[in-house]
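Onboarding guide, step 5: your first structure request.
Type a short instruction followed by the sequence, for example:

Predict the 3D structure of this protein.
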Amino acid sequence: MIIAFLLLAVIPHSDVLTDCVDVLELNHFYDGNGKRCFSQWIAWDWNSLRSRHDVVAWTMTCNCNVKATDEKLRAMVAPTKEGLRLRFSHVGVEREITAGQFRETHTQHDPEMEQRNILPVERRRGLSKPLRVPVMMSGERVILR
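The system replies with structure tokens like these:
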């Protein structure tokens, strides 16, 4: 028992959940008047059986009323040996997603919502699940996308 505890203390570990995808997309959605409504990160993987990219997961760029500038959003993506890395916090969990490609799009349609017609959310691969449960506030239920 003591040996197991000592091993856990010595072996390096990280509280950051890491995932790899093929493409990271920063999508800006605009209404019919050309006003930006929201921005979102979308993680895509190549589906070789269907010859298309499928959504793995998505998240809004922030959960506040203050919209981040495009420069700050792009700064969240850093180059690595493998490609690009996006690091962010989501419902109390630190995440890091590495992708071989990055694209930024400006659309009047929501690509993630459109993909739900092709690949329902419950059939998506999704991101790694945390081993610990995030702290809930006010008894609210948190749903990881």
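Each response can be followed by summary notes, for example: Strands lie at 16-30, 36-47, 52-60, 77-79, 84-90, 93-107.
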